[in-house]
Write a structure and sequence with these properties.
Number of strands of chain A: 19
CATH architecture of chain B: 3-Layer(aba) Sandwich
Number of helices of chain A: 20
Distance between the termini of chain A: 25 Å
Shape of chain A: elongated
Largest sheet of chain A: 10 strands, mixed
Helix content of chain A: 40-55%
Structural class of chain A: alpha+beta
Strand content of chain B: 25-35%
Number of helices of chain B: 7
CATH superfamily of chain B: P-loop containing nucleotide triphosphate hydrolases
Radius of gyration of chain A: 33 Å
Helix content of chain B: 25-40%
Number of domains of chain B: 1
Strand content of chain A: 15-25%
Oligomer: heterodimer
CATH topology of chain B: Rossmann fold
Number of strands of chain B: 10
Largest interface: A-B, 32 and 37 residues
Chain lengths: 750, 233
């Protein structure tokens, strides 16, 4: 029987290739993507642990020795350390400058050069150092002050680091971070924020701690943040979760398709082998032996396919994905992670494949040999429900025939529809994700941001400074302030971005004119509204310094970026908050040239171009999905239509004998193929859209929500690819129909 | 010239290792309107001969003329055209399309023939006017074979080829089918060739060609064939 198994596999290799291919893709994608998530997760956690990151960061206006001593004495506080943070920007670069001390809390890891020491010099972020081809000992200029590069560092808080939230991807050539000793930091001509890094006990009660700290630090208290909420870290770990979800989403889809493929393949195979099964039974082979023999086909093929996928996924797909996705993150090195989940999934795929093989085999092996040998189906045929309607008589005869044939074996029809639908779904996901990112960026940079140039200042400007700066601008302008605020929701705090703008037309929100906001009214981005589970008209409580303020949601804004709360200058000031913008949005560029308060300028078109590089990063996944779609479309549709061919074989042969020409017979087959593909295409459109929505939601981050979108052009391409798949399948079927030896086909069974 | 003339027909089938002769030097001729039975045991070459006569296969050598047309040298599309216009087939297991009603099964041939009969009329003639809208699975074996006969006749072909037409039927139904075929020859003037291994059926034929091991061992014209009711099954 084993020899028969292997010879049958060799003889029917085309049919079993599709099962092999689907189970291979299932595991290849799963292990590749899942390993990536595991590797990222382990590396990130190890990096956080090695960096001994503070649990919380208290932002202050000033340090105070006495208050620090009081803080240290708090029951929940285990360790504290000082840190100063500032921003240095010019037209070429944007740097976050930090001070280090001798505490081990949130200590950066030195990658190359000298150990951190109280010396006159600077330690640059390793990626920034590499991207700009610096050498140790080179000078690094900050406001005409020169600092010798003593070494390079990496710090877990900056695992994902962008210049600003406008920037969807890190640009290590332009932005980075650097460390100086406390003493050197204090000589820097930059606006500093003082921070107290806190290591707390496990049983720490954040509200209690916050209350205590605000009492101790009083007017110096600015904000208390948990390190896990830090943008870079949360983006990194959010991405790990997204990738894990993607691994399960895609592999579940492919597992389902593998099972459908194997069921169809085995059904056709068993039908072909009907006489052999009858002969084996007649010879006295037990039901169990025959059953195991046929189960072994599903077991061998799916096991080989999934095992190969499991082996090659981490070796081929993982490095390719890591080179695209992993490169966005700054880690010392990617840890090698071993996970046994891949082997478990191989076992699951193989087991499911065996079980699904039972469906066509089990009813047959239970029958008597003579019954199995009967060539003609004893299945009674029922009329299509459409036949009961007047509409039926208006249908062309060939269509009536095809509809009846579809009804005769609904399972195979569903398979054909599913193949076309799955192919369309994956193509929509592949092309749609690219369109969605393009559409979202286009919406941000052309609809939301109307400015030509964004001027960033060295420090937030007060009213007087705003007035004098605005006088230098002869064009239309709008002031922009962005800061973190904490939103209180279900006794938890979430840090979100508050965007506050003065009157003007340089930042336009969809469906909301900020001029219409009255006292305490805000706009809220749609994705954040979903996350907070609030709707229009709800009240939110936000925490600014020590104050808790209610804000009323005037409008939910369907926007890609920026995310968060939107205030007008008036509503902000009504809440007794000082409006101190860090940026000015200008209608035309080069309006402000030589003001000393200016730190840097960003041209919108350049920002847009930089953002579009994100598309390059996802092309790998897009190509992978298109390949999967082609494999799926061709293999499942091929299986389905070969199944149809095997069932209609006698009909086609009869028609040829009756004198129907090749073209007339092929037209009948083509009608059925195209009808099932058309139904699959129609169902694939909404299913693809739903899948795209889920996919886009998964790749969106808290900072950047992509808007699901698919262009007419992409839909046309996807439809054409499906059409090509169908024509390839039909071309193969045509060759089979043309090769029918009707003299043999119609020879009666003995 | 005769309606059908076969001259030294030879057909070999090639396997992986050898060439097996199915027909060797088969020569015969038939008149139009004759009811002929090709008789022989399994493996005698009778189905091969039927396939050649029906334009489903080509001889390895020899000549075959139907109405003076050289069928043996036809290309594939000419063979299709020949089957379409000149030949009606009746199979042992009927080979009706399961998803078409009795009427539709007959009517499909109407669409491809030049001068077809009306499907309803033919089905009425085979006494199935009450079963027009039934699917094959809803018909008895005899009824299915009558639909098959109606399908073959509907094209109005000059030649009707039957491969064991009563092989799957009981004796009474088999006789009904043979009666119908005989009528087609005597009344309608169709040339009917029936392939069978049953010597009983041979008794009703105008001509019996007896095949054995791929050669004709006997070719008898029966001047007084038996009536169908006289045949002992």
């Amino acid at each position: 029987m084993f020899r028969k198994t292997f010879r049958d596999l060799r003889k029917n290799w085309i049919s079993f290739l599709s099962v092999f291919l689907m189970s291979f893709i299932c595991l290849f994608i799963f292990t590749g993507i899942f390993h990536l998530s595991q590797q990222m997760d382990a590396t990130g956690k190890q990096f956080v642990q090695d960096s001994n990151l503070a649990d919380s960061t208290l932002s202050l206006t000033n340090f105070s020795e006495q208050k620090e001593q009081q803080t240290k004495k708090l029951a929940n506080v285990a360790q504290i350390a000082r840190r100063s943070v500032g921003r240095y920007q010019n037209d070429e670069l944007s740097m976050t400058i930090l001070s280090f001390n001798h505490s081990s809390i949130s200590k950066p890891q030195v990658i190359r050069g000298a150990k951190l020491a109280n010396r006159a010099g600077i330690w640059l972020d390793e990626d920034f150092f590499q991207a700009n081809n610096y050498q140790l000992g080179d000078d690094f200029l900050i406001e005409e002050q020169s600092y010798r590069i003593l070494g390079t560092v990496r710090q877990a808080e900056f695992i994902y680091h962008t210049e600003s939230e406008d920037q969807p991807l890190p640009n290590h050539k332009k932005s980075g971070y650097a460390y100086l000793s406390e003493e050197n930091f204090d000589h820097l001509p930059i606006y500093p924020t003082r921070q107290l890094l806190l290591k707390t006990n496990k049983e720490n009660n954040m509200p209690w701690l916050e209350k205590e700290l605000s009492n101790i630090w009083a007017e110096d208290y600015l904000q208390l943040n948990q390190t896990n909420d830090a943008t870079g870290l949360s983006i990194f770990f959010d991405r790990v979760t997204q990738i894990q979800r993607l691994a399960f989403l895609f592999s579940s889809l492919f597992l389902l398709l593998t099972l459908i493929t194997i069921e169809a393949t085995m059904r056709r195979f068993v039908k072909q082998q009907q006489l052999q099964i009858a002969t084996l039974k007649a010879q006295g082979f037990s039901r169990l032996t025959i059953l195991f023999h046929y189960l072994s086909f599903g077991m061998i093929v799916s096991f080989l396919g999934s095992s190969l996928g499991c082996l090659l996924g981490p070796k081929l797909l993982l490095p390719a994905l890591l080179s695209v996705i992993g490169n966005q993150f700054s880690v010392p090195s990617w840890l090698d992670v071993q996970t046994s989940l891949g082997y478990l999934v191989v076992a699951i795929v193989t087991l499911f494949s065996m079980l699904i093989t039972l469906i066509p085999v089990l009813p047959l092996v239970g029958q008597l040999p003579a019954t199995i040998m009967q060539k003609q189906s004893t299945q009674r045929f029922k009329r299509v429900w459409l036949e009961q309607t007047k509409f039926w008589s208006y249908l062309p005869f060939s269509l009536q025939w095809t509809l009846r044939d579809i009804q005769r074996n609904l399972r195979r029809a569903v398979l054909g529809i599913f193949g076309a639908m799955g192919c369309m779904l994956l193509l929509i996901a592949a092309l749609g994700i690219k369109d969605s990112i393009n559409f979202s960026l286009d919406s941000v940079f052309n609809d939301t941001y109307r400015y030509e140039e964004k001027v960033n200042f060295k420090k937030p400007l007060d009213g007087q400074e705003q007035h004098s700066t605005a006088q230098a601008a002869s064009t239309d302008y709008q002031w922009l302030e962005q800061q973190s605020v904490n939103v209180l929701k279900d006794s938890k705090e979430q840090t979100v971005t508050a965007t506050i703008v003065s009157e003007g037309n340089q930042l336009r929100l969809p469906e909301l004119d900020l001029k219409d906001l009255t006292a305490n009214q805000v706009g809220l981005s749609e994705a954040l509204a979903k996350r907070l589970n609030v709707t229009m008209g709800d009240t939110l409580y936000i925490k600014l310094k020590q104050q808790i303020l209610p804000v009323y949601i005037k409008k939910i804004v369907p926007i890609s970026s920026p995310q968060g709360l939107f205030f007008s200058q008036n509503t902000w000031e009504n809440m007794k908050q000082p409006f101190e913008p860090q940026s000015l949005l200008l209608d035309e560029k080069d309006q402000l040239t030589s003001l000393p308060v200016i730190a840097s300028r960003n041209e919108k078109q350049q920002q847009f171009k930089d953002s579009q590089k994100l598309i390059e990063g996802i092309m790998m996944i897009v190509s992978l999905l298109i390949l999967a779609a082609l494999a799926l479309g061709i293999t499942i549709m091929m299986n389905c239509h070969l199944l149809i061919f095997s069932e209609r074989f006698i009909e086609f042969a009869t028609l040829k004998v009756l004198g129907f020409t090749k073209r007339e017979v092929l037209a009948l087959s083509f009608l059925e193929t195209s009808l099932l593909t058309l139904l699959g295409w129609l169902l694939g459109l909404p299913a693809g859209r739903l899948f795209l929505n889920a996919y886009v939601a998964m790749v969106s981050t808290d900072q950047q929500q992509y808007l699901p979108h698919i262009s007419f052009q992409s839909l046309t391409i996807a439809s054409l690819v499906l059409l090509v798949c169908m024509l390839l399948v039909q071309a193969y079927l045509n060759s089979r129909i043309n090769r029918i030896d009707f003299a043999v086909a119609l020879k009666p069974a003995e | 010239m005769k309606y059908i003339q076969a001259i030294k027909l030879k057909k070999n089938y090639r396997t992986a290792t050898e060439e097996i002769p199915a027909l060797t030097d088969v020569s015969f001729s038939l008149d139009k309107g004759e009811f002929t039975v090709i008789l022989g045991p399994s493996g005698s070459g009778k189905t091969t001969l039927l396939n050649l006569l029906g334009g489903m296969d080509l001889p390895t050598s020899g000549e075959l003329f139907v109405q003076q047309e050289p069928i043996h040298s036809y290309k594939e599309n000419e063979l299709t055209n020949y089957r379409r216009k000149n030949v009606g087939f009746i199979f042992q297991f009927y080979n009706l399309i399961p998803t078409l009603t009795a009427l539709e099964n007959v009517a499909i041939t109407q669409k491809i023939a030049d001068d077809p009969f009306q499907a309803r009329d033919i089905l009425e003639k085979v006494q199935l006017s009450h079963r027009l809208m039934n699917f094959p699975q809803e018909l008895s074996g005899g009824e299915q074979q009558r639909v098959s006969i109606a399908r073959a006749v509907c094209k109005n072909p000059q030649l009707i080829l039957c491969d064991e037409p009563t092989g799957a039927l009981d004796s009474e139904t088999g006789k009904q089918v043979l009666r119908l075929l005989k009528e087609m020859a005597t009344i309608q003037g169709h040339t009917i060739i029936v392939v069978t291994h049953s010597a009983s059926i041979a008794q009703i034929a105008d001509r019996v060609i007896h095949l054995k091991d791929g050669t004709i061992i006997e070719n008898i014209q029966q001047s007084h064939p038996l009536q169908i009711d006289e045949v002992k099954w």
